[in-house]
Amino acid sequence: MSRSVAIRSSRWISALGLALVLSPTSLFAQSANEDPFKNFSRKNASAFLQSFKDPIKDVLPSVVRVRIEDQDVALGTVVRSDGYIVTKNSELVGDLQVIFRDDRKVPAKVVATNEAFDLALIKVELRNLPVVKWANTAGTVGNWVASPGMDSVPAAVGVVSVGTRTLSRRELAIETTVPQGGFLGIEPIVNESRIMIKDVVKNSAAEKAGVKKNDYLLAIGDQRITTREGVFEALSKSKPGQTIEILLNRGGEEIKLLVKLGRRQGVDRSDVQNAMGSTLSTRKMGFPVILQHDTVLKATDCGGPLVDLDGKVLGLNIARAGRVESYAIPTDALQKALQEMFSSISTTKAKPAETTSSTKSK
To answer: Any idea which fold 3-169+272-356 has?
Structure first.
């Protein structure tokens, strides 16, 4: 370890130790009879978060807020100085706006996506942006990590709970069986080899668009509909908030309607138990590889970097998956995904972001 790194680490450890000793919300002030999960909320107490200001300070300029219609939907991370930012794709429905730390508000557009990791590469028309520097080191189980947001202290902190891994078959099965598409709000039935709308859910997207009982559904977008399964398949490709076109037959006349899809109201019981008062990410599983940590991260704070105590960026937060489960994409997998997205928008080979050396001694 270099002398400067040693001094910085020593100061940080001293500050953290002082915060833990003096704060009444110390992680270690727990009796045997207390709820073992009670202190997870304490980790995000203001006094405790102050101890993590130093490790994240060099990363903060590269973190931005992503909004749609003045609503926070995700964080973003600058990956190229000429206006390229990576964020979480499944939350991006509508006109994008990026908020910088100096309060600049800039429109953005999606230029590439990676469905496997739920990533979007978005572009703003700015130059000379500060670029994040990824570390090509993996997080170590038991080590502290911080998730920078838009403030000088982290949005949340936690501990690496499971090393880099692929999701189990059971987890992948859960992801693929839970409806992820937009909600139309109809009850389709087969009538004379056609799909008839038997009922329309009150206050649903379909009702608001003018869909009526006994209409025949002919197409959703470009997909012709001939079976009930076809309805679900077509909607599974959509997102809540997305506007789609549907083709109906009403009284022998074909009509087209634009429908802004809603969000399915039914909630899985395990999601309720996992969330415990905090919203989970809409897309929270199905990633090829993840780094799991126990940070109590807001779903709207996904898309930002995950940083260790040396200030190294270990990956990109991609999902709040459970009560004390958050997922990050490890840097090696993220680098490959970024390269693929850049390659898809340009014939010129582009570097995703600078990488720090993994040979840095501790």
So the answer is: Thrombin, subunit H (2.40.10)
